[in-house]
Protein: RNase H type-1 domain-containing protein
Amino acid sequence: MDAMVARKGVALAMERGFHYLIIECDSIKIVKALHGNSPNMFAVGHIVEDSKALLLRITGVLVAHTRRQAKGTAHRLARHGIHMDTNSCSWFEEPPNFISNLLVSDCN
Structure:
């Protein structure tokens, strides 16, 4: 799932015209694969390769490993996003109500 989320995130960043991107992932395999230069051969290799091709078109990219405990808000958003129509919701100013408390706790 992390590979698909990364690809969707990169595509969204490109659509929005972002030139700098930070990708945090709790899968060390995905992080290493996105950093790698050789073709990726594990189960989601084609998704990783798509992501790498998209990342080449972004000016500044940082791909970093993070512990799962450190990304509660991102995990909740990903779970919510799986069950919704991709065109039905976007936000770039105010966060959705269902994650407001998580954002506050992440900042403390």
About this structure: DSSP finds five helices and two strands in the chain.
